[in-house]
Amino acid sequence: MKSNAIVLVKGEATIGIGGGQPNRVDCVGIAAQRAGEKSKGAVMASDAFFPFPDTVEEAAKHGITAIIQPGGSLKDQLSIDCANMHNIAMVFTGFRHFRH
Known about the structure:
It contains 3 helices and 5 strands. It is α/β, with parallel strands linked by helices. Strands 2-1-3-4-5 form a 5-stranded mixed β-sheet. Helix 3 (76-85) links the parallel strand 4 and strand 5 (89-92). Helix 1 (24-35) packs parallel to helix 2.
């Protein structure tokens, strides 16, 4: 699988990677597990959009403070609302690199 990749960054360092899983939430969990305590305050980037807020919820559980994602889901607003609820900044790149 070549999609649903997540990377966590803090400062100028990559601290966790969750590579291509069938489920975006699992990717966040894998990346956060690899980052450990460093995930608190980290920025998360995804190659694919979030059609449901569950990925944002998982990021919030690990202390992620900002999310970079392509956007473009018909349900983007659900993820935006969830990010706002958790005080997580969200940036949309408009560029999707999601591939099966």
